[in-house]
Each structure stands twice: as structure tokens, then as C-alpha cells.
What does this fold into?
Amino acid sequence: MFLKKYFEAFDIGELRTTMGRTITETDIVLHAGQSGDFFPHHMDEEWCKTQPFKKRIAHGTLIFTVAVGLTAHVINEVSMTYGYERLRFTRPVFIGDTISVKVTISNKADHKKPQYGLVTELVEVFNQYQELVMVCEHLLLVEKQAQ
Amino acid sequence: MFLKKYFEAFDIGELRTTMGRTITETDIVLHAGQSGDFFPHHMDEEWCKTQPFKKRIAHGTLIFTVAVGLTAHVINEVSMTYGYERLRFTRPVFIGDTISVKVTISNKADHKKPQYGLVTELVEVFNQYQELVMVCEHLLLVEKQAQ
It folds into this structure.
């Protein structure tokens, strides 16, 4: 779906939540192939048994990818990604865990180009136990409505 | 390869560069399937012709994934990822572009747990024209050598 949501239309505290996604062994295998990251943390069940976390864990880049994908449903034609801040992987995600994302508008600021503003989305990813597994801030460069 | 590189062994300015990876149409298609992000910026060649960038562009999460994967060759058993800061996608990456990564140790700092230190890697991703396409800071929590 395409829409035009200008800077002025974002309200701090505005909240949306996504559908869930179960992280499967297939996701990890595909992600290893796509990234080239075959570290034993993700690929070697026997080595993982010797580690504190005991089981294969999803790549951080996989969780980030799925989390951003879960939020990608509405195309705002007057907004673009400026970047991400404070990306943290706070707990491991295991095969069979189900994650979903909560997005909260947490800040609005001016930009050096006066026709744009910066909107910050707080992106929080939870597992099926409502434990936080990933968090970051997504910065959006959003057009201001012509006066 | 496994090794143990303690906090004290990291030097500011230390540099490594990776092999290159050509970003293919297959990468974009697989990444759309894995992420669920089928935005027209990545999937709709005809819509892209109406946009300033004219051609399908790689997902930011794909470039981040491949960049991190390119750096994932040596497993430091006394280090773990703490997070990422200031992730920016500075130019679009198109099908057929080849990216490689330059990693520079840019900072070392204490951590509240005295047996650990924080190492910052500046991660810069360049295309085949040596143009910067992505940049971020990778924070590592690294054990200090037992005194």
C-alpha cells in the first residue's frame, strides 16, 4: 500500500505492532548461505552444546532482517530510511522462537534541509515470552508538507 | 579459525579488508523471501524506472548482512558483539555492483564490568568505484587478559 504521511502527521508515542514470525532452522541455513557467515554459533549443534547458550542461535543480521521485514508493509512515499542507531541483540533467538515487533514513534527533530524532518522509531523485538531480543532506533527522513 | 585475542591486543588504527561480493538479482530475491520485504524499490523494475534511482536497489538489510558476513572469518573466543551504532546507507547498491569491507579499530574503552573492554570497529563498505555505500560502528565486548 502506498500513502503519503508527512512529518507533521507523526505523533510521539504513536504505536504499531506486527505479525509474528517463527524463526526456523531453514531461516538460519538460508541466512548462512546469503551472508557467508557459517560461524559455529549458528551452524554447529555439537559445538553449541559446549557453550553457555547450549543450542544454535540465529544470526543477529537474521533477526534484524526479519524485524525490518515485519515492519515493511506500508510504503510512505515521502519518507526514506536515514539510518539506524543503538542496535543491540539483548537475548539469543533459538530455532522455534517466534518474534514480533513493536514500533513506537519516540522523537521528532529538525533536519539541516528545512523541507525535511527526522522521525525516530523505537524498534523493539520480542520473543514468545515477551522478552526483548533486539532493540534499535530507526531514523526516517520525512518530507514536511508544503506550506 | 578459532583464536583468543584479548582487549589489550587490539590497536587503534589496525585495519583489515575483506574479499569482494557481487550483489546479484538472486541475492535480492532470496533476501525478499527471507525478510518478507517485497517493497517495489527492490522488486519492481518498472516502478523503479519512475524513481530517481531508476533501477532496483538492494535492501539495506541485505547490504548489512553481506557486509557482516564478509568480515566473519576468524572466531575470537574472547569477544562478542555488543551492538552496532550509526548504521547508514550512503548510496544505493544495484544488481551487479561488487562490495567489499574495510574494518578499522577506531576506539577502545572501559566497560562497567572490569574484566571486559569495549572495542569499536569502524565498518566501511565500498562499491567497485570505491564509493562508500554503507558505514557503521561495530561494538565488541572483549575479555581482558587475566593479570
